[in-house]
């Protein structure tokens, strides 16, 4: 019994001795590593020093000289780009209209109705254009060789254009004096002048506000309405 206890105690002593040697060896290695001069150079955990500003390579950025620098160009105005934009628009010329005033011309003892062109300004409305035309007609001819059978003193009381109809109202002087030839001539002057803007228009003639049915002492019948065609057919005058 005593021998068995001694046998057990021997291996335990051996194991304890081995462990003590291992610990002593480990401590020596640790001391040597701590005091070794090469440890800091090869230590993987040593921090890497950052380069100082003096060690960092400098980058030079070229700065353009004043002559090379691009100066911003001033934006040109629309007037400088397009000179026409600054020019004032031309004033519109006054509205002009050409009408014809009709006179009489003696050819071989017979009357012919001949036109004279009259340019009228500021007549944007046809009524005003015809009114100016009749003012010229009643004032008398200014062209050599032209005659008028409309009595002096005849006035235009009113004139109106209604679609294809022209209404002309004359004063009482229009019916005074002259024979049948004179009556036919003055009637033709009124009809052709009233249709100078619309040759196919119908003319309604009145005197003193009343429709004109008979003209002159001989009773020349006046068609209502009258046209250029009816006048030429009735009296054979062109």
Question: Which key features would you list for this structure?
Answer:
four-stranded mixed beta sheet, 238 residues, two-stranded antiparallel ribbon, alpha+beta, disordered N terminus, globular
Helix content percent band = 25-40%
Total number of beta strands: 8
Q: In angstroms, what is the radius of gyration?
A: 63 Å
Strand content: 15-25%
Q: Count of DSSP helices?
A: 6
Shape, per Cα inertia axes: globular
Spans of at least 5 consecutive residues with low confidence:
1-8, 36-48, 50-54, 89-93
Task: Describe the largest sheet.
Answer: 4 strands, mixed
What sequence of helices (H) and strands (E) makes up the elements?
A: HHHEEHEEHEEEEH
Compute the average pLDDT: 74
Order of strands across the main sheet? 3-4-5-6
Helical/strand content category: alpha+beta
Amino- and carboxy-terminal Cα gap: 178 Å
Give structural notes:
The protein is an alpha+beta fold and 238 residues long. Helix content is 33%, strand content 21%. It contains six helices and eight strands. The strands form three sheets. It has a four-stranded mixed beta sheet, with helices on one face. The chain has a two-stranded antiparallel ribbon with strand order 1-2. α4 runs antiparallel to α5 (180-194).
